[in-house]
Structure to design on (212 residues):
């Protein structure tokens, strides 16, 4: 199982690293490669990557392979899939999919978070003892969310909000779902943020004790 988890975390970190590089290229270019109204699903690589991660991590949690809390996992996956499936896939013509800086901000928040997270677990699994993971890496794993989570929240909310006009025209019942889902971002964010603060306090306290 250790080899499997090493492979999974290494592959996932690599996929999100590719997404990060593509995001930086888009920002430097000043536009996305695809055009609004085309047949191509915008951000399809990130869509398939997130579905892959969501399915595998849910399976890992349900089977007890990793100790991830299922409610936290479902909440984070649901928030992302609202964007990637509910907007990119269902309404690819939405202008929110092509808002360079908003969607790039969202992508930067997600990709950097996942590169750090999967990279940390890959490094942890590859060591003979967890204590051998540098404290700086552990600190980054449990501190980067202070900036990345709020950035993701703002960009995700703007993406949903800017899709309302298209959704109301094409899928009026679906627009009602999104209008109810958007306010749920706040309590969901508070829950995830509080959870990470709690985890940070617990993990860094143990790490500091090892260094003492």
């Amino acid at each position: 199982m250790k080899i499997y988890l090493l492979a999974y975390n290494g592959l996932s970190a690599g996929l999100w690293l590719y997404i990060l590089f593509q995001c930086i290229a888009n920002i430097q270019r000043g536009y996305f490669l695809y055009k609004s109204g085309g047949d191509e699903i915008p951000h399809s690589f990130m869509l398939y990557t997130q579905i892959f991660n969501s399915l595998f991590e849910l399976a890992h949690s349900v089977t007890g392979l990793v100790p991830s809390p299922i409610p936290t996992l479902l909440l984070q996956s649901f928030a992302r899939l609202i964007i990637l499936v509910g907007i990119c896939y269902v309404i690819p013509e939405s202008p929110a999919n092509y808002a360079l800086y908003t969607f790039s901000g969202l992508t930067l928040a997600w990709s950097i978070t996942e590169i750090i997270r999967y990279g940390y677990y890959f490094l942890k699994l590859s060591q003979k003892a967890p204590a051998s993971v540098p404290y700086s890496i552990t600190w980054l794993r449990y501190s980067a969310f202070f900036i990345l989570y709020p950035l993701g929240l703002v960009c995700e909310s703007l993406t949903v909000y800017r899709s309302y006009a298209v959704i109301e025209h094409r899928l009026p019942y679906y627009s009602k779902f999104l209008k109810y889902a958007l306010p749920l971002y706040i309590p969901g964010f508070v829950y995830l943020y509080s959870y990470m603060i709690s985890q940070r306090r617990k993990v860094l306290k143990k790490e500091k004790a090892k260094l003492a």
